[in-house]
TrEMBL record:
GO terms for biological process: defense response. Residues 2-127 form the C2 domain. This is C2 domain-containing protein. Residues 49-68 are annotated as: Disordered. It holds the Pfam family C2. Residues 50-64 have a biased composition (Basic and acidic residues). It comes from the Eukaryota.
């Protein structure tokens, strides 16, 4: 690719503007105790719009029980259009791990990516927040703390899976996307 190309020339059928997005799940506090005989082992599941292809998990915390701590960082590449659109939602769900039975859902937080971006932008692209957990329409017991960072704009080559992800509303670039340049 020539170094004199404009953004408009690079933004074509083959390329798109994106930003790296890092989210660090720090901890949760005051969770409802869903285990009565054994210790709670809590983990978090992160996705965008609950799209399974975007889901990543923290390790389970074996010590904190109702106050788990992970300090676990996850990385994504998000299309700029997805950041600026109200439809892309960061979803973080908490579960209690069980050995022979299905894991127990504790609660979740949801936040529009656009809102996270607008909050972080004046602070250099990074912010930290604590949100109340919800279970269905009701506020559940407990809070979740996480930090996040939006990187500079980059141009990436759209992988073959791009169309499927955009159609699903995810507006994410799979990790196979090749970074071409920083803007």
């Amino acid at each position: 690719m020539e170094s004199g190309n404009t953004i408009e020339e690079m933004e074509s059928e083959q390329f798109t503007q994106c930003r790296n997005f890092h989210v660090t799940l720090i901890s949760a506090s005051d969770l409802v105790d869903v285990r009565h005989l054994f210790k709670m082992k809590v983990y978090a599941s992160v996705s965008f719009n609950e799209e399974p292809k975007t889901e990543k998990q923290t390790p389970k915390d074996k010590q904190g029980e109702t106050n788990p701590a992970w300090n676990h960082r996850m990385e994504y590449t998000i299309a700029e259009a997805g950041i600026l659109h109200n439809g892309l939602m960061l979803v973080i769900k908490l579960y209690c791990k069980r050995k022979f039975l299905p894991d127990v859902y504790i609660g979740q937080v949801q936040k529009p990516i656009k809102e996270l971006f607008e909050t972080a932008l004046p602070m250099g692209g990074s912010a930290e927040t604590t949100l109340a957990l919800r279970k269905g329409a009701a506020v559940s017991q407990g809070e979740l703390s996480f930090s996040y960072t939006f990187g500079e704009k980059i141009i990436v080559k759209k992988p073959s899976e791009w169309k499927t992800l955009v159609e699903s509303g995810a507006n994410l670039v799979p990790e196979t996307g090749k970074k071409l340049s920083h803007l």
